[in-house]
Design a protein that fits this description.
Elements lengths: L4 E2 L7 E2 L3 H13 L1 H25 L11 E2 L10 H12 L4 E2 L11 E4 L4 H30 L1
Antiparallel strand pairs: 1-2, 3-5, 4-5
Helix pairs in contact: 2-4
Length: about 150
Amino acid sequence: MRLFFRYTPGHQLSSAAALSARRAAITALRQCDDQIEMMRDEYNRRRRYVVKALNNMGLTGFEPRAAFYVFPSIQISGLTSSEFCEQLLREKEVAIIPGSAFGASGECHVRISYSYSMKHLREACSRMRKFLENLKQEQKQAYRGHKH
């Protein structure tokens, strides 16, 4: 949620949020430091888990510092980012975003949110690992088939 006020001389004061939302935001800013710190620590834990799990699968990238997303390379898969995401969704029911959705430089990458619960993140990473293992086996079999 974004909260802001705008005042222009000669115009009315306007805001982008309802009064109740502004009051809740003020209360959060004044009284919720412990909860904010707890949630920040939780997101850091989720981020570290997802980055480590992806690295263990061979999907590497930069560790994010301020977002709820990782953007690993999927180049080892041999698939385009759209192919990777479509197959992962169809075969393992895990939805992630193709990097190509963010422009040509995003190709060979995918965007993965880690704002889900640890339970969901563990399950999604497990399914992705199995997907990559199956893909590697299929590619080995296809290679052997072309070799003979």
